[in-house]
Amino acid sequence: VVKSEVEPLAWRDGALHLLDQRRLPHEVVWLACASAGDVAAAIRDMVVRGAPAIGVAAAYGLALAARGGELSTLSEAAATLRAARPTAVNLAWAVDRMMAVAAPLAGAPARTVADALEREAVAIHQEDLEANRRIGAWGAALLTGGSTVLTHCNAGALATSGFGTALGVIRAAVAAGKSIRVLADETRPYLQGARLTAWELQQDGIDVTLITDNMSGYFFSRGEIDAVVVGADRIAANGDTANKIGTYTVAVLAQRHGVPFYVAAPWSTVDFATPDGGAIPIEERSREEVVEATGIDGEGVMRTISIAPAGIAARHPAFDVTPAELITAIITDRGVAEPPFESSLRRLGG
Ligand code: MRU
Is the pLDDT confidence value at 3 over 70? Predict the structure, then answer.
C-alpha cells in the first residue's frame, strides 16, 4: 500500500518523459522532451516541478544537449536550464554536477561525452530516489502513531524521483505500521496541495484530508495538528529554509501552538554558499496565476476562469523563507539536524 508507484519522470528511448503535472489530477498525460530547450520549457511551465525533480530533469536535459539537441553548445544549455527557475538550488546543483563531468572531456568524441552525461543523469535520478528512502527512514522515527500531520505544497513522489521527502517521511511512518492522518493545505495559488498531494496520497491509500490554506490556524488552535512536515527548495548554511509560499505562515502558527515543525530534504537542497535566508533568490511568477483558476468542467474539458476584477494588480512570490528559529529539525538523507543548524548541518556535511 505504502510503496508509491507514482514517478514523475522516466528516461526511455533517448528521450525524457515527464508526467504533465499541469493536468493532474484530472488527466494522466506524459510529455516527451527531446532537447535541452524542451526540458527548460517544461521546467518553466511547471510540467515538472518540485526542487529535486527539476534537478533530475535538468540533468537529463544536458544529456539530451550532448546528443545534439537544438542548443548549440552544452554551456548554453546549462545556462538556459539553470535560469529556468531560480529558487530551488537542486537545479543549479544538478547542472553543476553534470558540467563537472563534461569539463574534463573537452575535446573527446561527442559520443563519449554524451554517454558520460547520460550515465551521470541516471545516477542523479537513482541517487535521489535512494535519498528519499533514507529521509523517510530518519523521519518516520519522529512521528508518533495516531498523529495528524499537516503538510504544505507537494513534497511528494511527484516532486522528486519518487517516494518524496515530506511525503516520504509520512509513507515510511505508515509503512512502519503507524497510523497517520494527513491534513494537506491546498496551497494557493498553484494548488499543488489540492491537485498533487491529495492525488498522490489518495493513490497510495493514505488517510488525507484537504483544507484551504487559511484553515490551518483553526486546526492548530483546536489541538488537531501534532506535527508539520514540509519540503524545501533551498536550505541556507544557518538553516533558514525557502519553501512554497505560505510555509512561513504555517511555521509561525506551529510555534504559537507548540507543534514541531520539520523540514525534509535531500542533501542537494543544502546550500552552504548561501549564508542565510536573505540571500535566497525568490521567484516571482505571473499575476495570472493569482487572478485565474484552472479546473475541469462537466464535460471533462480543462478551463481557465477569471476570479478577480479585470486589470487588478496581483503578485505571486512563489516561495517564502522560514527562519531557522522556527524549525524543530531538518531531516536529510544523511541524518537529522537539530538547532543550532549552523553547526549541525556542517557536521552532517562531514
Ligand atoms: O513551485 P513548486 O511546485 O516547484 O514548489 C515546490 C515546493 O515548494 C516543494 O515543497 C519543494 O520543492 C520541495 S519538493 C521535495
Answer: no
- For the chain, helix (H) and strand (E) counts, in that order, are 12, 18
Report which ligand 1 atom has the smallest distance to the Cα of 51. Answer: 12
Query: Which residues does a 6 A CB cutoff place in the pocket of ligand 1?
Result: 49-52, 88, 153, 155, 159-160, 165, 192, 231-233, 243-244, 318
Q: Which amino acid is at 216?
A: S
C-alpha 350: how far from chain center: 25
Written as nine digits, the cell of 285 is 511568477
Say whether 233 is catalytic: yes
Q: 180: which strand partners? A: 147
Q: Where are the beta strands (DSSP E) in the chain?
A: 9-12, 15-19, 30-33, 147-151, 180-185, 208-211, 227-230, 234-236, 241-244, 261-264, 270-271, 284-285, 292-296, 302-306, 316-317, 319-322, 329-332, 335-337
> Could you give the CA distance from residue 109 to residue 119 in angstroms, rounded to a whole number?
16
Question: pLDDT tens-digit profile of 68-101?
Answer: 854 568 999 999 999 999 999 999 999 999 999 9
The tens digit of pLDDT for each residue in 254-271 reads 999 999 999 999 999 999
Secondary structure (3-state) at 110: helix
